[in-house]
Write a sequence for this structure.
């Protein structure tokens, strides 16, 4: 038996199949069942009772996690020269305009997020085919198309993530790292759920949050008790 399958077996043995765990229990358990050599992400899968094909049941939003994501977020700011200094001072990794647009056209996507200004969106439109599939297209709804470049960069660096429900009605997001302590995982999970709850579409009927699972990269999922997620 390979080491990986042996570890997976050990992880599965720690999870009681029929049990629903409180967020405090799960935050500790997810750290115990992760056997990866690298610093794995802690992920949440939230299954919603919505029909994402209907525009009025689309759930998308942004959340600033109290303890950040634990991930280095590489930020590219596409802006006019007078905004460049502001972007750099706020901690952007790359700042520029036409030179970076050319780089992106040639397939460079060594970044996690692009922030830009409304006046530049016309130039970026042509990059839709490259940026769209990678989730890099700036969007006013997620705060990545704005005149307040410094604020946008700071928020992203501090742990702001945007999320949306997929076609199966599931929201999937990384809310931290396994090297976080259990309290940090719990706080981030609760903040994430608070924001999702506030976004309930008025047209969604029946149970809004059907199930929530916590897992890490390569670990099995741990089913969460919904009540424990609401402070």
């Amino acid at each position: 038996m390979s080491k990986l399958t042996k570890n997976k077996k050990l992880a599965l043995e720690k999870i009681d199949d029929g049990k629903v765990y409180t967020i405090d229990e799960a935050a500790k358990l997810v750290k115990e069942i992760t056997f990866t050599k690298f610093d794995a992400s802690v992920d949440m899968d939230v299954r919603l009772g919505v029909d994402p094909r209907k525009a009025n049941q689309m759930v998308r939003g942004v959340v600033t996690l109290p303890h950040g994501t634990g991930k280095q977020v590489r930020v590219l700011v596409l802006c006019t020269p007078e905004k460049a200094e502001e972007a750099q001072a706020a901690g952007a990794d790359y700042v520029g305009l036409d030179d970076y647009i050319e780089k992106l056209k040639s397939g460079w996507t060594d970044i996690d997020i692009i922030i830009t200004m409304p006046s530049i969106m016309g130039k970026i439109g042509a990059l839709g085919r490259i940026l769209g599939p990678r989730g890099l297209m700036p969007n006013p709804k997620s705060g990545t198309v704005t005149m307040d470049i410094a604020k946008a960069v700071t928020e992203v660096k501090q742990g702001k993530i945007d999320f949306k429900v997929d076609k199966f009605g599931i929201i999937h997001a990384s809310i931290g790292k396994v090297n976080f302590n259990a309290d940090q995982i719990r706080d981030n999970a609760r903040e994430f759920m608070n924001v999702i709850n506030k976004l309930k579409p008025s047209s969604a009927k029946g149970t809004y949050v059907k199930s929530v699972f916590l897992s890490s990269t390569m670990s099995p999922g741990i089913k969460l008790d919904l009540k424990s997620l609401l402070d």
Summary: The beta strands are 41-48, 60-64, 75-78, 94-96, 113-116, 160-164, 170-177, 209-216, 222-223. DSSP finds nine helices and nine strands in the chain. The longest strand covers residues 41-48.
